[in-house]
Write a structure and sequence with these properties.
The complex is a heterotetramer, with 2 copies of chain A (351 residues) and 2 copies of chain B (602 residues). Chain A has 12 helices and 13 strands. Chain A is α/β, with parallel strands linked by helices. In chain A, the strands form 3 sheets. Chain A has an 8-stranded mixed β-sheet, sandwiched between helices. In chain A, strands 10-12-11 form a 3-stranded antiparallel β-sheet. Chain A has a two-stranded antiparallel sheet with strand order 5-6. In chain A, strand 7, helix 7 and strand 8 form a beta-alpha-beta unit. Chain B has 4 domains: 197 residues, Pyruvate-ferredoxin Oxidoreductase, domain 3; 184 residues, Thiamin diphosphate (ThDP)-binding fold, Pyr/PP domains (Rossmann fold, 3-Layer(aba) Sandwich); 72 residues, no CATH class; 111 residues, Rossmann fold (3-Layer(aba) Sandwich). In chain B, helix 5 packs antiparallel against helix 6 and helix 16 packs across helix 19. Chain B is globular. Chain B starts with 8 loop residues before the first strand and ends in a 5-residue tail after the last helix. The chains are: A alpha/beta (351), B alpha/beta (602). Chains in contact: A-B, A-C, A-D, B-C, B-D, C-D. The structure holds thiamine diphosphate (2 copies), iron/sulfur cluster (2 copies) and magnesium ion (2 copies).
């Protein structure tokens, strides 16, 4: 339910997924972002993702902080449960929501400001807990909503629309995530839906915290010449480390890939990813490798994209905590309240 | 104040922390309790781990007064560092026990205090081998000394040893030896018993000794809370420790042995409250315990919870402020910080337990109110309630109990609905319907802390915005009808009353008893919840003068009584106690007498 | 309210944000101003960047009333999306201008409004080539239309174009063309001028048009602030933008061209206040601007600053709460959140500017008070003051000005001292001496938020602790003598008064003028600072009834007047306006009249 | 000045530094930590460091957060300016203090809880700003002051004094610091003063943010068998990657070292470090190397110590910000206040 609904016109012959739903059913209210904003493309890719994965909308929760990027959960999956929290603190809300019911799909959307400045603490600790969620950073190198201040991901030398170039070293969410111990680390570009959608799918089906850093140009404040997060500069500097395919569970599709240079990883929530390596001497299953090639690329002014690290074996938060699988919010009160007899006997210890 | 008498006396232990004194001191208290004598223990410990002075004060009182007496009848002075001040704090006519093993230079004495030297170290060194047991058994030995001096029932103590150490026979034996040594030494060297002693009675039947963090945690367990998030902070830490302990035995899934609960040690308090809200939003009963600094850090999220209307429970176990203040001392200094937490126009439902017993019941009630009112609810305890050992009535539970989950739409209701709107006030009580994520395709809605209209849509429209914040005021009125009523003791004859809050209760009970005896009977109202309801205002109206007693510097309850009722502020006289020590009846009595004698009061 | 007349009218522009309308709207306002007519501009913009409705409202008023009139005499309706509501908001007898380039279906009309179609797009498309200039020049063209309708001095507008665009001749030319096109079209097609018009006068001599974030920033520059830390948040962002801009031209070291200041974009508000305190502690004049959510996040550190006694200045440019609320709408909703920020017993000195002029003077004053009182000082501005364009008197500065740095010990004093103790109240005013790190070997001391005694040592001792928090109350009394006095307009004849705060001021000025004309003169007190001083209480005592007017839901000033003075609360009647739009005189008048007529007021 | 002063008995023949001060002069008030606590050894090493470096006490500021570790600034250099702030937020106070006067020496002391949990955001951003300070983490794997909860640096499998072993992946401050772009990253052990003191010196004389992670056992809550942060376990798992010497400025001492396997770095604030490599194929001037060897050691259950990464070339905060060298808190008011004429002319823009 939402207030300003887009007029939903579903064509008769519209493509339907296994639930009989159309793409339009997964849309949200009308975007109020600037025309051309990278974030809107990511919204589109997310819509495609949840449609393709046949996710029942009400089994999906979508959370965010504050920022242009954080507004986007309102723009997809209007039949899902949305939670636009406070600035930089979405991970904690997701942690609580997940504890109450770990069976729901969970997508968090954040910005580079929301994650890397005010949100750094919660971001790193959600990674440490390996919370089972897809965490998308819509990374534009600026604070869009507050009108164009540099964010912590702005590159050294990148110029502001007006004013001096940035002098502080950028924080790279991928390197930070790996250093904290993330189990799924990927990077992509809002302008590359072909790469983005499989990564979103794999991230959502991954068991544990899937961090997806998506370069998403801000057309209003950071798309000019001199900006390293512009469409132009991103297209030029971007290099794919791996080609990623997501293969649905029980898919009949025979995938044709060269065993030698490919890696196949079964995902815990279903399906698998096929990673076709473009880089030699690099395995996305080895953290030191991942960090090294990210750094080397950065030193050469290149931005590595694709699934940069994956580890499907580490237990996720609820497993580590030994919590029952059944949603806690559905356990009958009778099973939770020990009752009067227990209370009486327990009090013997206090006599 | 009054002279000690049988079953009415205060023993204070001055120790060094980290020397294992607490189990001996606890043993002494429990023995008194098992002899049927009402008793309370107050722990004054430093904000460090080892090597600093620490005190434990045990008050026995036939009438069951549970606040400190403010006097010391027997001082067990085991800490050389604080000897001088410990001696100074003994009442005239009182006793001081010290370890006379080695002759001390400059042993200070007082003419009006009987100083009893016991060579504790020496006798223990003779009997025990290891350094550890020598240190520990010195403590047990002074319990033996006290047992002789106070004529205690030794069988009770011995039974307690059995109950405590169970199968560990060597510990039982060692303690027994130490106990006897102390006992015998005293019998031989001092006039036993003293003029006041402990005499077996039955005044503690149907009671337990427990601290308020444990009972609050039990409340969470019995209320069916499943998600607890927290960041360690004194004095709230033991609440989550207790919850965790109870859950380990009471909350395992029968089949899988897995946890029917989730306890999350957060990275800080901002995360802890975010988690609690996330879980509350997603239909779990959730809570987070903290103390002052945590409340400050939770401010932004608390306003979010108020405005987006999300249930959760926040325990504030208050300590001495401002800032870090004195983390191991008590105060009631967050009353306003909680009631109005967050920027913008916010106000929060708060509950104020007076002791561990109420901490249990109000804790369970907090979960009901949070869900009924769809808002964060505070339980304001304090260090005195939370960490000290109180004697309270046995806790009771009715097995037919049904939790009040508030207006949550179920499957059938949603099936029948055309469209669900989250913030529509259908019933006119300011409380709207909510849904739990994942349960029904029609239940989805969007939760936000930004401007929203009654349908749940984003808005920047002046009247749509105002519509929702005005409805929250309607809900506030409804809250007044749901929160616990104040506790009132009223007689038409009395023109002067007392209004107070929380852990002041016991000192006030004692104050009233004393003043009544002196012919000055006072009525009494104790607020148990914010928002206040009409009875508070009525009470003030009924009196010529009302003393408002609380444990903070700025008179925070006094402030709120003035602004949140229409009562005449001239009638209210604020009395404040805020040095970090639990309030004493004698100090209250003194202040009230001064007021009355100076003619300021009616 | 009243009919428009010469130099008294309101023009409202309904635009889409991101279409460059603000420069045209500004040009219109500045031209009115340069014609000598008092004028104010209010901007109602959305919390997004592009594509949503945005309004700009310009009120010309001979008397210089700077609050919105609450009425629209001419609506320039450039946004099809909001056309219906824009039309509805025009006063009977008013005008609506719209772009008639393409015939619109269902063009709504009203019998009592004159709808004037101007084919703005068409005429601009004919004249201009690029999409960008076509969009922009449409805006200039409607200024031309208004110039004709209102009989404005075209030479003034042309001069303004020259001043604005300077060397960019092509822009001057383009604007000139667009202006003429609009002007000519109106002249040819409509009856010009209207019954009300703009007539040159001299009422704006000695005035400027500026927003309060710019003046507050200027205050920081002139007060000698060198360290500013911040985290971007609407509506405070432009304060730091302005500070940064002024510093770039006014604060470069002459020799090295390096910065004589440090502006730190923090990672969040917790860090921003930590930085401000660190700098204040280390002897720099420091400040941090923020808005509601930032205040909540700063709570813990603010209590630290209060207790450890560290000077710094916090600007709270208030916006509509609670929580994220409406970030681009105004309110005065953090009055209590700032006054009592943090857990424990804390209270803070707050200053309340009424307009950009006062924002300048109180900003400089805040730095003095922070250092004199050694404590964080708040300046509570709001979105209306901070981001709207106000006409205020020229700002003045006395060159002999010496900043008041408070009790900072210098080299000689320390040389002579045996030992320096940080928290010793030598002068009895509650303010103790401090030193600046690095300056003198004897100056070292230890700063902490935990319990400390008057010598600066750590303490957990009850009376040593109380000693210091009691001394802070003495300082609070001293603060009452140092903070700015309230502004009072009083006549013995009047039995009814108004107390208000901050940006309500102009609407109240207008209210009083209107009511006085109607025979109902009201006295007026505006608090400029917390703590209040005696005059506030006296004022209440002098009246039978006092209306307390403020822009928040819960009557926060009203609360504080009741608790922080001894005045009779029955005399105070709270009037609250909190829909996010700056307060209108007509709404106040209506409410006061209702109160008076219903006999509720004297 | 401090309340409970230790009785300062200075022996006649006590060693004096160039300022004529004795070690005792650099002590603080009596420690209230547990006997044997690792933190007290670090306090001792810091006292030695500032004594040896001839630092005028009042030119040193020492800051901390909250925790047993954070109490220690009271226990050294009582003639210096101390600031015991709030939990996890010392870096911001240091940033502000440094901005007001960048000429003072600045030591920040923190704990693993104070830094890696509540303080993660400020820690990473102080690194990003390359704030010129020495930042010491007294890392014991637990929250000492709140009585023994696991901290974020507790190793997987490490047992609590009572209760279950830790299941969450530890956060390694060294890896995080390098991933954020720290310019000086070192690790040591409270029990190894010989290694610790040169590292403290080098860190304090480094231009920019010097991060020193010191394993510092908590004897009360985390020194038992099963704990990986106990004295025993730390001694066993610790491996030195580099031997570090600090050489004072204008030192006459001829250092005898093998050029081939050694690296010499001049420090900005004076003196230089000599790094004698123990590890092959590792340069502390290369970040990818550093991360790799730290990880590899960790995988083998070893904890690498020594100066793990150094970069003396990146400008520090005040340089990046182009702030004058002269302390801002000493610029005369006349140079800061533009005066009435400027105010008048400036207002022409608003007419
Ligand atoms: C506590 C708090 N501080 C500041 C703000 C103001 N604010 C809103 S969005 C934003 C930054 C957003 O940047 P980013 O996360 O990169 O999102 P973008 O708009 O670039 O997509 C800030 C600082 C806020 N809403 N809350
Ligand atoms: C805001 C806040 N939350 C919680 C606390 C309680 N607290 C005090 S010290 C501490 C943890 C200290 O751990 P660490 O930094 O590792 O220091 P250690 O005691 O182990 O040296 C905590 C949680 C506090 N003081 N402030
Ligand atoms: S300001 Fe930038 S980030 Fe925000 S909506 Fe516009 S283009 Fe997107
Ligand atoms: S508790 Fe641990 S960290 Fe704290 S002082 Fe004791 S040994 Fe040190
Ligand atoms: Mg961004
Ligand atoms: Mg620790």
């Amino acid at each position: 339910m939402s207030y300003i609904k887009k007029p939903k016109i579903i064509r008769e012959n519209a493509l339907r997924n296994k639930l009989g739903m159309t793409l339009t059913d997964y849309e949200g209210v009308m975007s109020t972002l600037c025309a051309g904003c990278g974030h809107d493309s990511i919204t589109g890719a997310i819509i495609q993702t949840v449609f393709d994965l046949n996710i029942e909308p009400h089994r999906l929760i979508k959370l965010s902080g504050i920022g242009c990027s954080s507004k986007t959960p309102a723009y997809f999956a209007s039949q899902s449960h949305g939670f636009n929290s406070v600035h930089g603190r979405m991970p904690s809300v997701a942690t609580g929501a997940h504890s109450a019911n770990s069976e729901l799909f969970c997508i968090g959307v954040s910005g580079d400001g929301d994650t890397l400045s005010i949100g750094m603490g919660q971001f790193t600790h959600a990674i440490r807990r390996n919370l089972n969620m897809l965490y998308v950073i819509e990374n534009n190198g600026v604070y869009g909503l507050t009108k164009g201040q540099f964010s912590a991901s702005a590159d050294v030398g990148s110029t502001a629309k007006k004013g001096a170039p940035n002098v502080q070293i950028p924080i790279d969410p991928c390197q930070v995530a790996i250093s904290i111990g993330a189990t799924f680390v990927a990077r992509s570009f809002s302008g590359d839906k072909d790469q983005l959608v499989p990564l979103l799918k794999a991230g959502l089906m991954h068991r544990g915290f899937a961090m997806l850093d998506v370069i998403s140009p801000c057309v209003t404040f950071n798309d000019h010449e001199g900006s390293t997060k512009s469409y132009l500069s991103t297209r030029e500097s971007k290099r794919e480390a791996l080609y990623t395919d997501y293969i649905e569970p029980f898919s009949e599709i025979e995938v044709d890939y060269d065993q030698g240079s490919s890696i196949e990883v079964d995902l815990h929530e279903g399906g698998k990813v096929i990673l076709r390596k473009a880089e030699k001497e690099f395995s996305p299953l080895n953290k030191s490798d991942s960090i090294r090639i990210i750094r080397e690329a950065a030193d050469e002014g290149e931005m590595l994209t694709g699934l940069l690290y994956i580890d499907e074996n580490t237990p996720d938060f609820t497993e580590m905590e030994n919590t029952v699988k059944k949603p806690l919010n559905e356990i009958p009160f009778g099973d939770l309240c020990p009752g009067s007899k227990t209370l009486t006997s327990l009090q013997k210890n206090y006599k | 104040m009054s002279k000690p008498s049988h079953n009415n006396f205060t023993v204070k232990f001055a120790n060094v922390n980290g020397t294992g004194s607490s189990s001996a001191n606890g043993m002494f208290m429990k023995s008194i309790f098992r002899m049927g004598i009402p008793v309370v223990g107050k722990n004054y410990f430093p904000s460090n781990i080892q090597g600093l002075p620490t005190w434990y004060e045990i008050r026995a009182s036939e009438k069951g007064y549970l606040s400190p007496s403010g006097t010391v009848d027997i001082m067990v002075a085991m800490n050389a560092q604080t000897y001088a001040e410990d001696l100074a704090s003994v009442e005239p006519g009182g006793y001081l026990i010290y370890d006379s093993s080695w002759p001390r230079k400059e042993l200070m004495t007082r003419e009006d205090v009987t100083v009893l030297g016991v060579p504790l170290a020496r006798i223990c060194n003779e009997k025990f081998d290891t350094a550890r047991s020598r240190t520990l058994m010195k403590n047990t030995a002074y319990v033996g000394v006290l047992a002789a001096l106070l004529d205690m029932d030794v069988a009770v103590i011995e039974q307690l040893l059995l109950d405590t150490f169970g199968a560990k026979k060597h510990l039982i034996d060692a303690n027994k030896i130490a106990l006897d040594m102390g006992f015998d030494y005293a019998k031989e060297n001092f006039k036993c018993p003293l003029s006041f002693s402990a005499q077996t009675t039955n005044k503690t039947d149907g009671h337990i000794i427990i601290d308020g963090n444990a009972t609050a945690a039990l409340g969470c367990v019995f209320a069916g809370a499943t998600v607890g998030s927290w960041y360690p902070i004194t004095p709230s830490t033991s609440l989550m420790d207790a919850f965790s302990g109870y859950c380990q035995s009471l909350r395992k899934d029968k089949e899988t042995e897995k946890n029917n609960y989730s306890i999350i040690q957060a990275e800080d308090e901002l995360a802890a409250i975010g988690m609690a809200l996330g879980a509350g939003w997603n239909g779990a009963r959730s809570f987070t315990p903290t103390s002052g600094p945590g409340i400050s850090l939770m401010g932004e999220f608390l306003g979010f919870g108020y405005y987006a209307e999300i249930p959760t429970v926040v325990f504030d176990v208050q300590r001495t402020g401002p800032s870090t203040g004195m983390p191991t001392r008590t105060q009631q200094c967050d009353i306003m910080a909680c009631a109005y937490a967050s920027h913008g126009d916010t106000k929060h439902v708060c509950l104020y337990p007076a002791n561990p017993e109420e901490a249990f019941y109000l804790s369970t009630e907090a979960f009901n109110l949070a869900e009924q009112l769809q808002t964060p609810v505070f339980v304001l305890s304090d260090l005195d309630i939370g960490m000290n050992d109180w004697m309270v009535k046995d806790l009771e539970w009715e097995d037919g109990y049904e939790p009040k989950r508030g207006k949550v739409l179920g499957k059938e209701e949603l099936d029948e609905m055309e469209t669900f709107y989250r913030y529509l006030d259908v019933d006119g009580d300011g409380i709207t319907y909510r849904t739990i994520p994942g349960r029904h395709p029609k239940g989805a809605y969007f939760t936000r802390g930004s401007g929203h209209n009654r349908l749940g849509g984003y808005t920047e429209n002046a009247s749509d915005y105002q519509d929702v914040v005005d409805r929250l005021l309607v809900k506030w009125e409804t809250a007044k009808t749901l929160v616990p009523q104040p506790e009132i003791s009223y007689s038409k004859k009395n023109k002067i009353g007392i209004i107070s809050i929380g852990s002041c209760n016991d000192a006030i009970r004692e104050t009233r008893d004393v003043l009544k005896k002196q012919g000055q009977a006072l009525n009494y109202l104790r607020v148990k919840a914010f928002p206040f309801n009409d009875k508070v205002e009525t009470f003030i109206t009924q009196h010529e003068q009302v003393f408002v007693i609380e444990q903070n510097r700025d008179g925070q309850l006094h402030h709120m009584l003035i602004t949140e009722t229409n009562a005449d502020p001239k009638k209210l006289k604020s009395l404040r106690f805020y040095n970090g020590i639990p309030i004493f009846a004698k100090d209250i009595i003194q202040q009230i007498e001064e007021e009355i004698n100076s003619g300021k009061a009616a």
